[in-house]
Structures are given as structure tokens and as C-alpha cells.
From TrEMBL:
It comes from Methylophaga muralis. InterPro entries: SQR/QFR_C/D (IPR034804). It comes from the Bacteria. The chain crosses the membrane at residues 12-32, 52-70, 91-110, 130-149, 169-193. Signal peptide: none annotated. This is Succinate dehydrogenase/Fumarate reductase transmembrane subunit. The keyword NADP does not apply. Keywords: Membrane, Transmembrane, Transmembrane helix. GO terms for cellular component: membrane.
Amino acid sequence: MALLQVKKRLMAMAGLVLSAYLIFHMLSNLSFFSPEQYQAFYDFYNQPLIRWPLWILVAASLMFHVIVAVQIRLHNSKARIHAYHHRQHHFIPAWLVSIVITLILLFIVWHMAQMWSFGGADIYGQTVTLFSSVWQLAIYLGGVLLIGLHLQHSLTNVLQTLGKTSKQFYWISTAIVVLLVVGFAIVPIVAYWKA
């Protein structure tokens, strides 16, 4: 198997780890609708033996995913001598992908910095206070939407690599991404209205 194919598979595996964490994170956020369960979950989650190993796994997966993606992109850029004469159906310009990925990484750093400042006996109240600002809400929703777009693009590519190119698979992957985005978006929207 060519080195490029190995890198693509490893990048996809790191992406699966990140996707699993996103699903876990979204489901845990839905406990927001019961302040007691929300606080109980984060009291458990913030224990050092739970939080640190999980964060190390996620951070390592994210760094690996980004580094390999950059390597693949550089390889593909060097390999392409001439521009395509016909644009692909779902063509996304490289400059736009770079901007979106940069914004996603900035959002992740911003979100992590905020979450690390949370703690104590009223994480529910801290969440409501955080999202009482329309700017915080807009940044969060924008970040979640960009992550959703990246996931949709990635799932489409993975399914195409596996030979699953029918519209049925496209719509299933789209439905999964929409559920994830809505699951993440509903908590800050409700928190904003409660504030």
C-alpha cells in the first residue's frame, strides 16, 4: 500500500476518534436540560483521572489529523502539474478550505479555553451566563456550523473512498451531521433565552 494511502487511512482513524468525542460531547451537553444531571456529569467528567486521559487522546488525535492533512495537501499540490479543465461537482477551492480549517482550529482553542475556566458548584449557571452574550452565542454557533460542514465533507470523502457513492449514503451522512449540529446548537440557544 502506498504511503499516501496509509496516511489517508491514519488521518481518517484520527478523524473517527474526534468524531466519537464530538458525539460523546454533544450527548453530555444535552444533560443541560436537567441542571442537576448537567452538574453531576461535569463533576464526574472534571475528575483528573477522567478528564486528562480523554483530553490527551483528543488533543493527540487532533494534532495528528491536522499534521497528516497538511502533508497530504502539500503532496497533492505538488503532484498536480496542471489545473483541472473541468471542475468536480463538489469542488471546494483550496483557499476556502484553508480558511475554514483555520477558523475551526481557532474555535476549538477558544472553546477549550472557556471550558477550562468552568468549575465549581454551578456549571449550569456558568453556561447560561456564557451564552447570555449574543456574540458568544454567534461565535459558538458559527464554529459548530463550520465543524458540521467539515464533517459532511469528510464523511462524503470517506464514503466515496469506500465506494459508497449512492444518494442514500449521502443523505444518511447528511442526517447524522445535521443531528450533531442541532444537538450542539440547541443548548446555547436555550441558555441564551434563559439568561
